[in-house]
Amino acid sequence: MYFKRTLYPLALLLLYQQSAVASELNPIITVYTTSNYAISHQEMVTNIYFLDQVERIEDEISRDFNTNPMIAEQQARDLFNSPQWKMQEKQLLSAYQGIISSWQHGIKKVPAILFEYENVPATVVYGETNVLSAKQHWLAWFDQQRQ
User: Fold this and answer.
1) Can you tell me the distance from the alpha carbon of 65 to that of 71, in angstroms, rounded to the nearest whole number?
2) Coil, helix or strand for 138?
3) Cβ proximity of 86 and 95 under 8 Å
4) Is residue 97 within 8 Å of 49, Cβ to Cβ?
5) Which pTM value belongs to this model?
6) How far apart are CA 107 and CA 125, in angstroms?
7) Is the pLDDT of residue 121 over 70?
């Protein structure tokens, strides 16, 4: 009887400690989304990529181009030689970085929140816009994997 009375509280304490340790984990969190979704708790995120950003930047760049292809081509050349192009080029490179990252991680749809943690396979939570809630789902999955 003594054994059971000391074993149960010890087991509960051990389970509590494991769950407390899991809640303190700080994985790398990357969000893949579009401008259609409002992401909450962005302060928890390491990287956030708006996968429609390339299209938005290209639309912004080309919106003032003439409909005549010859004139539009000259306008594009002028833009590429302008000082403002360096900033727009940098924005485009950053936007493409998100697309490349999503391909590399096999992201299928948005919103997607990717969790990366040492010695654990990268894990994605789809359809969630609340990073805190997604992390809680990931922590539950993480705890389940350790059992």
Assistant:
1) 8
2) helix
3) no
4) yes
5) 0.77
6) 10
7) yes
